[in-house]
Amino acid sequence: MSCNGKLISKLRKQLGWTQNDLAKKSGFTERLIVKAEASQNISASTLHIIAETFLEAGAQVTAADLSADPAALAKEFFLAMYQHGPRTLDVNAHFISPDLVVHYSGDPSVFPFAGTHVGIDAARRAFELFYSVIKAPDDASEMENIQFISTGHGALVWGETWAHPIGMPMNAAMKFAIKMDFDKGMLTVFDNRFDTFEGAKFFGNALNAE
């Protein structure tokens, strides 16, 4: 399976170990550790042993943390947003925590989906509200220009989108940044920080048009 190389590297450095140190302590070759930190495919049993090695040294991590690449999961999540819209959480249920927290920035009086939504039911409702007023592009081609960066226990996603209020296409793309946290391979936080100033202008225009 693919592994969370960013987290393996981060934990190793926090413990003050070289790649050779981790190799010796876990009983593997340095070449395998290099491969793991490059997020290449590693067997589940190997990841379990590496996690146990970290645990014995006092690091808080599980094999599930090491077996999930946050950037890859974030990309999978985003693709579902284009393809399935309000059903995104259900489509990705295999890596969605029941305690998921979804946050959308902005004023709830302007953006009906804004605020902090705790728990899977509230999170699902937030996505339904979002897609009740927002139309995503017809394809996922803009994903080519979106950055997905692993932070170890999470991922940062940023770029520009042409998603717009329904019936009110934009004349320029909107910038956004999203922080996604994972625990044991499960998405626990989806924190969407978009350009609320520009967004408010578009929503204001859409409301006036009605």
Would you kindly provide a brief summary of this structure?
The protein is α+β, with helices and mostly antiparallel strands and 210 residues long.
What this model shows, in words?
By secondary structure, the protein is of the alpha+beta class. The chain folds into two domains: 5-66, 434 Repressor (Amino-terminal Domain) (Orthogonal Bundle), CATH 1.10.260.40; 70-209, Roll (Nuclear Transport Factor 2, Chain: A), CATH 3.10.450.50. It contains nine helices and eight strands. It has helices at 5-14, 19-26, 30-37, 44-56, 63-66, 70-84, 88-91, 120-133, 196-209; strands spanning 96-104, 115-118, 134-135, 147-150, 154-161, 164-165, 174-183, 186-194. The strands form two sheets. The protein has a six-stranded mixed sheet. A two-stranded antiparallel sheet has the order 3-6. Helix 2 crosses helix 3. Mean pLDDT is 89; it is low at 202-210.
Give the termini distance in whole angstroms. 51 Å
Strand order of the largest sheet: 2-1-8-7-5-4
* CATH architecture title of the largest domain: Roll
Amount of beta strand:
15-25%
Helix/strand order, N-terminal first: HHHHHHHEEHEEEEEEH
Helix count from the secondary structure assignment: 9
